[in-house]
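Q: Hi! Curious about what Amidohydrolase 3 domain-containing protein looks like structurally. Here's the sequence.
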Amino acid sequence: MLFACAYTAYDCNQHAHNVQETLKDLAMRFSHTLYIALLALILSACHRDSEQSPLTANTPPADLTIMGATIYTVAEYLPHATALVVRDGRFIYVGDDDGAKRYRAANLLTLNGELIIPGLIDGHAHPGYVNVERFGEVEGETPEALLESVQAYAAAHPDQQWLRLCCWPTNMFVQGSDGPRKEVLDAVAPGRLVWFESETAHDFWLNSNALLALGVDKNTPDPKPGLAMYARDDQGEPTGWVKEGAGVQHFAKHFAVTDAAHLAQHKQTVAETLQILSRHGVTALFDAGNKGYGDHVYNVISELEKEGRLPLRYYGTYQIFTPERAKTAIAEVQRYQQQYGGELLQFNAVKVFMDGISANQSAAYSQPYLGSGTSTEPLLSTAELTELLMQLHEARLDLMVHSIGDLATQTVLDAVEQAQANIGQDFYPRVTIAHLALIDPADLPRIHRLGIIANFSPWWFGVETNDVVESLLGKERYSLMYRARSVVESGARVTYSSDEWWGGEMLATFISPYLGMQTGHTRQYPVEWWQSPDDGVRSPADERLSLEQLLRGYTQNGAYQLRLEDETGSISAGKSADFIVLNKNLFNVDPHEIWQLQPTAVVMRGQLIQGEF
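A: Let's find out. The predicted structure is below.
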């Protein structure tokens, strides 16, 4: 009862919340017992104050009171409650039903035990990128059939200057360090400009005319050899296989979105995507970048906010996908702040691709890829990233890092350690490392010690049949990927995300946090997706996350990543009234049905924005 009563005093509870982070630091230095004792002392004082200050007839009425609920607050000092009270967009009481009855509510709602959780936070998303690019769709189950489809598309579009096509399967055309060749496309689409996207969108297949149009030849330097690069033959001539930033750097210049119909369609798609996220209960997200289309995308988001159509807090960034872009990143984020920033659309971080992906061998691992024996270096060296972190400190900006391989992650940790040593205790940037497919066991405790935030996309954790990555890494390394639970149990803050930008009929499923919760919890895809009667559990099976660990990452830790911990992330008095009423209890439903959950109501800042009570 101590904790519940403490919540009846708004001002005192606000003070208790403000000192909680300080107490956590003391606990890490001394003991968890000391933390509990100090927190109990403060809350007991709040309890006494609340008894001495009973509500009177002059107390302003609450806007909303909900009782009879099952509330998982995610707040450590009061994880469970049955009632909440909202006034002026904020929680002013969280506790039991008897305490809530002390407030005169303009709207009183009594539930039948339905589960309420905080608004969810997607820590790594790309909703503004959906349908920014247009591709001609080609398909084929064999190389021959796929190329016949390319030929047919070219014939059907004789006036199209660039044939931007999608998608070729990596395992169909990449064998070790050898990839697709320009001569093959030259033969099926002679005289045309062909840009063929891979299914991963991390590498590209160009024909000779396309390379010529981009000004790429044997004398063109790779932005980052082995990572952002043009594959070459023995004479140094580009083969037509282009990886990562070497291709991305051409997007906005050569494929700018200027057609009026395309502009209108993209804006409408973004608005719909944001509504899907909102209907799932996402009240804040981090946009991890838009491959050079930043101005276009953030202009759209800014317009939606001005039109009253931005249903969540939106945090944008500037991507570094070639080393050269590191020189302009901070100035560009600051320009975004001035040009596009608003109340909901904000910018407080830079994003850097420290490596690519495993399938095209652009991810940076400490051990070579099997078969080819090649290794890839991270985009920035330890010294270069340290310098960027020092500049981010001066600019008061944070850093988001894409890191797949253990070498990329190790480089980030080394740079953060050096930058922190240079600056001292006042080091400003909060550094988030996304993906973390493979982590050196020696680096697990460093993530926590350095205060790194780990971000995983848990819907990736299912079993992949015939995964080309397994043949490139070997069974031992492959069986140790995505060790999210180990990171959580190390004490590090972990957040979760969708990292989805591809449109189509599956978009609403892929960006759903409930798909992430289910797959993170089971390390299995939905049964409906299985390729066999039993696809099994992805190894290591003991890395399955608890639902509590997942919810904390989607709420409280996500708020910390975005510097919103004082505003949202838990159902606590004084915080913004962001919460979800679910149609089924997450903790009671069959684990293989979690992905089908839907909120019946979504409230943000005390306003019902989706569904109904």
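A: A fun detail: The longest helix spans residues 32-52.
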